[in-house]
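Can't paste images in this forum, so I'm doing it all in text. The chain is below; anyone willing to post the predicted structure tokens underneath?
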Amino acid sequence: MSANESPAGQAQTLPTATPDPVQESAFLKACRREPVPHTPVWFMRQAGRSLPEYRKVREGIPMLESCARPELVAEITLQPVRRHGVDAAIYYSDIVVPLKAIGIDLDIKPGVGPVVAHPVRTRADLAQLRDLTPEDVSYVTEAIGLLTRELGATPLIGFAGAPFTLASYLVEGGPSRTYENAKAMMYGDPELWADLLDRLAEITAAFLKVQIDAGASAVQLFDSWAGALAPADYRRSVLPASAKVFDAVAGYGVPRIHFGVGTGELLGLMGEAGADVVGVDWRVPLDEAARRVGPGKALQGNLDPTVLFASTEAVEAKTREVLDSAAGLEGHVFNLGHGVMPSTDPEALTRLVDYVHTHTAR
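Text version of the structure:
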């Protein structure tokens, strides 16, 4: 008797697993370098100041407080999915949220950015950086639970700031154009620097694990300021910490995206750190980026965000350039080369999503 026959000799139909619609989404397929029905699209900072509905719900609420209200986080995260029809949502938060959660005295000042009351300058200052526990960010777990129920087949991307970018804020005490204090520590006290980044890698990994455990289908590590580094310095002083983060979440099997600004010279190293998808800003064409990154990685990007202020015809022409440059890639997720600018017309984003979907339909 064969395995699929009953004792009476009648054939039985074996149950088949129902495909997970999230895993079958164009976004996750592209991240896994699988065939897609169309090139998937999402935008960094898609949930934010470019949307009037965002400004309305955020009115009078400080940034870090808004990140700790689960229902507000869910609403803001969902807004661009509803409006633009993007292929993925990204969790609404800020890169300093895990630092605030472990008790770092910091605030996000309008027009300035994150400001740290007591910058990390000495070994004794490392004591500020205790381990992050899920209880520290229980609002993240609650918000992602709300989101995954609402998003249905649309994947949710979790995110965190990379160790170097977090260290830059902590050492400088706020935003910087030169990173003089951070680089002085990196060059002058490499052991303290390595210990700082290692501790931040543990905090970042814990923050990403909370998001994945709660239901995030992919994660993105933002190393916003890594472009300030020479490749040799990145390899020696930054890559090990980023690799530690990616290694910590590798067992979950979710795509891992790595993005930085001005990182054209670092693309190969950023892929080497462990990303499955390497984000590319607008300065390097995607075909050249693929050469620098090497095989086995998908790419994400990379329309210049300022193009969206031009005419619709100009946006479409520049978009075709990006898509043509991506034609031979193993996997491509369409995005901007950096975040949506606050004064961007939301309708331009909606038209862009529709154009990419239509132009790349298989």
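The beta strands are 89-90, 106-109, 113-116, 156-161, 218-223, 256-260, 277-279, 298-303, 332-336. The chain has a mean pLDDT of 95.
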